[in-house]
Amino acid sequence: MMLQGKTALVTGGRGGIGRAIVARFLREGARVYAADLTPHGSLAAHDDDGSHFVKLDVTQEVDAVAAMAQVNADAGQLDILVNAAGIEIEKTIEETSLEEWNLSFAVNVTGTFLTSKHALPLMRKAARAGTTASIINFGSYDGFIADPGLAAYCATKGAVHALTRAMACDHGPEGIRVNAICPGYVDTPMLQSFFTGEGSGAAGKSIDQLQQAVRDVHPMRTFGTPEDIANLVNWLASDEARYASGQLWVLDGGLSAQVQQMKL
């Protein structure tokens, strides 16, 4: 098992991608803390999976401090932090209120900052124990190119990309690796809300037609699954990735490799 004896905390751990990461980490032998707003998160699913639930609002520093205090009391160190919590607002900047803009940055960017900041002391302990520690942030292919109607989301993911590189430079000498996963379309509750939202540009198409259009624009003719993302996260969390840091790992079925994109 690739993560035997390691301790991991996953924000958004009760969401679509977060749950898949938690499940994979558990199969690989890690002690896992699933951090989220509620035990059920965005999915009405069974929660007795062997992970430890931690109530965490990533926009609140007091919550981040409390979550790391719990991990410290239980495990004494933290080997892996996955910042998977995120939201998506489907609007142009003209349509986006200041409150919505600030909320997007609070969850997607400030949340990554706060959990990472307060995890660092525990991660230094893990690094001093003889292996590298690993922080894995969540960017997006929308941090490189843009889908229409996702202005605030695109801006936050570009910020996460820059923050990831800065963190890797600052904390690499301490034995802490920092990378970002940049998914494309992944079959999650967030994607399903995109299909039904104003930003989708559905123009009268049925949900099935829109989903098929999304599949067809990919070179691989499909969109991803949470398990696809969890596979890459698992490798980046493991000691096999000891030389991988400061990188933005795009996982999008070849979507962003194309010269032109379909506008949805």
TrEMBL record:
GO terms for molecular function: cyclopentanol dehydrogenase activity. Its EC number is 1.1.1.163. Keywords: Oxidoreductase. InterPro entries: NAD(P)-bd_dom_sf, Sc_DH/Rdtase_CS, SDR_fam. Transmembrane segments: none annotated. It holds the Pfam family adh_short_C2. The keyword Oxidoreductase applies. Belongs to the short-chain dehydrogenases/reductases (SDR) family. This is Cyclopentanol dehydrogenase. It comes from Ruegeria meonggei. The gene is cpnA_1.
